[in-house]
Design goal:
Nucleotidyltransferase, domain 5; 34% helix; 128 residues; five-stranded mixed beta sheet; alpha/beta; globular
Length: 128
């Protein structure tokens, strides 16, 4: 089973919101899709994106997974999770997510903001 995960976060002066979209069994005629968004309070956008990756990985562990693709428009996530760049902030959270990723056959893919399926969810949540 192939799984695709899209994550995104956005911030305003008052709050930060994050969202994910998970698509299960991507290659089937009727893939199953669910989305989740949450107001994250006053944390940084980078923290919100990391927390959403963590949440998504916890959600897909319930399903048999052979291949996972994590799509993000975040340069920060690409740098700390894919390229292994040192995290100067959020070190504990970055290390926690990195440790979780080791249990998966996962590819992290940089996409444009316009291609991020989680973007509409996060924008709507931010307006609430």
């Amino acid at each position: 089973m192939k799984v695709e995960i899209y994550v995104d976060a956005a911030a305003s002066k008052k709050k930060t919101a994050a969202a994910m979209v998970v698509i299960l069994d991507v290659e089937s005629q009727a893939p199953w899709q669910f989305g989740y968004s949450k107001n994250m309070g006053k944390i940084t956008k980078n923290q919100a994106e990391l927390k959403m990756v963590e949440f998504a990985l916890k959600a897909v562990v319930l399903f048999r997974k052979e291949e996972i693709k994590l799509y993000t428009d975040s340069i920060y996530l690409i740098n700390v999770l894919k390229k292994g760049c040192a995290a100067r902030k959020n070190v504990a959270l970055v290390n926690k997510v990195r440790k979780m990723l080791k249990g998966y056959n996962i590819e992290i893919v940089k996409i444009p903001k316009e291609g991020n399926q989680a973007d509409p969810l996060v924008r709507a949540k931010l307006k609430e």
